[in-house]
Amino acid sequence: MSANRTTHATSSGPERALLVGLDWKKRGVATFTPEESIDELETLVASAGAIVIGKEMQAREAADSTFLVGAGKAAELAGLVKGFEADVVIFDHELTPTQQRNLEKKLETRVVDRTQLILDIFASRARTREGQLQVELAQLQYMLPRLGGQGVMMSRLGGGIGTRGPGETKLETDRRRIRTRIAHLERSIEHVRTTRGTQRRQRESVPLLTVALVGYTNAGKSTLFNRLTGAGVVADARMFATLDPTVRALTLPSKRKILLSDTVGFIRNLPTMLVRAFRATLEEVVEASLLIHVVDGSSDTAEAAMEHVEAVLTEIGAGETRQILAWNKMDREGSPAPPEGASGVSAASGLGVEALLARIDAELPAEALARAVLRVPVADGALLHQIHENARIIGKVYEDEVCVLEIEAPEALVKRFKTHLY
């Protein structure tokens, strides 16, 4: 079975990619059909800046150890590569190092699998030093077993899908250098993790509950984050537009303040090395009091995407955290009604956002409040600002150089001010 589509491009234009999918006859219970899976791969390829010139599918009982696909299909692909002048062939399945080398020799062009494509997109999206370290670590862990005989792929410098990131100088046959670099990156990321933990403890010193947005990539998390907080987080149709977590304060209808975190989108078969590398980032999810699971309600694969997000949450230790299901993109024509228990919203238009905020308010655990009278030096502007930001001011009078405030605030916050109690 095949489905081909031809797109023209000049030699100086985008890369021309031929996609290859597998339809496993004994695949068991599948949440994505083979066609849906290769369509998602096409979206990933577009996010990487290439154009798809054709899509090929083969039904198989099991993987071929030499080419993944059968020998006849490999020969057919070689003809298509020449006929379509393909720059790269991308498989919607992880290839073994041997399969990748054999395919590159047979097809005489670069061959990339789904994992490498996702790593490449992450490499092009990472903006902070933390994100760049995490992506490079994941790329090197992926490349290490593939160093021997990289053939066509490794003979090309700095151009095209699968070649961004560490670069050839770090991917030579000197495995010792690669392992040394990996060890250095792991130490650096552990330092980032420690620093993030310190920052989290500093946030916790002013006790604000944390809510994290999670969901499949391109579900609309960043658009919803911007709608709720007024932040300027990048929000576009490309997959993995957000890699680095962003945290902003948010005031709920009850006037209490929380912290809202935007996180990297999940995806089917997210490479294991990426999950490991982004452990520091994903801790924002693990530590949250409440998760807002954002789903693209207009997508035909919404239920399958939800299942994959739940699987990743379980893998990182957040499977039991309380959730609200935000059924997004309800403003789109033909969007089905949200399932029972979900909150229907449109992050783009604001539809249902007020109701979602009220539900977040109701779902978060109630904080015990206490009243207290504080004596704070007028010169201590930082402390006065912190009290005004996080407590309800009932009364305030000035006595010489001291400000006397009667406040109502969470008990944990009042305890922090115990040295100023009147």
Question: Which features characterize this protein?
Answer:
single chain, 422 residues, alpha/beta, 14 helices
Compile the SSE list and pairings.
Elements: E1 2-3, E2 16-24, H1 34-47, E3 51-60, H2 71-84, E4 88-91, H3 97-107, E5 110-113, H4 114-125, H5 129-143, H6 151-154, H7 175-205, E6 210-215, H8 221-229, E7 246-251, E8 257-262, H9 272-277, H10 279-286, E9 290-296, H11 302-315, E10 323-328, E11 343-344, H12 353-363, E12 369-377, H13 381-390, E13 392-399, E14 402-410, H14 411-416
Parallel strand pairs: 2-3, 2-4, 4-5, 6-8, 6-9, 9-10, 10-11
Antiparallel strand pairs: 1-3, 7-8, 12-14, 13-14
Low-confidence stretches: 1-11, 149-158
The secondary structure category is: alpha/beta
Task: Assign a percent range to the helix content.
Answer: 25-40%
Name the beta content range: 15-25%
Query: What order do the SSEs take from the amino end to the carboxyl end, as H and E?
Result: EEHEHEHEHHHHEHEEHHEHEEHEHEEH
Give the terminus-to-terminus CA distance.
79 Å
Strand order of the largest sheet: 7-8-6-9-10-11
Q: How many strands, what sense, and barrel or not for the largest sheet?
A: 6 strands, mixed
Whole-angstrom Rg: 26 Å
Note the overall shape: elongated
Query: Averaging pLDDT over every residue, what do you get?
Result: 82
The count of strands amounts to: 14
Number of helices: 14
- Oligomeric composition of the shown chains: single chain
